[in-house]
Amino acid sequence: QVQLVESGGGLVQAGGSLKLSCVASGRTFRDYAMGWFRQAPGKEREFVAAISWSVISTLYEDSVKGRFTISRDNAKNTLYLQMNNLKPEDTAVYYCAARDAGWLFGTARISDYGSWGQGTQVTVSS
């Protein structure tokens, strides 16, 4: 498994931006398809975005399309989530996750991911 540590969360006003980072260690980062998920208070964890190991393919949840961008820098072992035009409903703990090595593409299914970070809080005020 790969170890994941998120950062970059915080408090921002509606319409603002944040960029989350997720640093991986322990294994070869470029071997892993990656994803971002989030969990709001009282709600189940949900998919946000995913990216293939080679950066060729990305996938987004409908409500974040056009506002969020997932990217990765394999040389820095880092996954990113650029979040623009944030809304109060984006408030949640955001988690990065890695699929098991060998899977090329990210997916929206939580059960497809074997490694998870500890999460970073994003709060959007209205």
Short synopsis of the structure:
By secondary structure, the chain is mostly beta strands. It has strands at residues 3-7, 10-13, 18-25, 34-39, 46-51, 58-60, 68-73, 78-83, 92-99, 113-116, 120-125. It has no helices and eleven strands.
- Determine the strand fraction and express it as a percent band: over 45%
End-to-end gap:
39 Å
Quaternary state reads: single chain
pLDDT averaged residue by residue? 94
Total number of strands: 11
User: Which residue ranges are poorly predicted, with pLDDT under 50 across at least 5 consecutive positions?
Assistant: none
User: SS-based structural class?
Assistant: mainly beta
Helix content: under 10%
Q: What letter string, H or E per element, gives the SSE order? A: EEEEEEEEEEE
The DSSP helix count reads 0
Largest sheet, strands/sense/barrel: 7 strands, mixed
Broad shape: globular
Q: Supply Rg.
A: 13 Å
What's the helix and strand layout?
Elements (H helix, E strand, L loop, with lengths): L2 E5 L2 E4 L4 E8 L8 E6 L6 E6 L6 E3 L7 E6 L4 E6 L8 E8 L13 E4 L3 E6 L1
Parallel strand pairs: 2-11
Antiparallel strand pairs: 1-3, 3-8, 4-5, 4-9, 5-6, 7-8, 9-10, 9-11
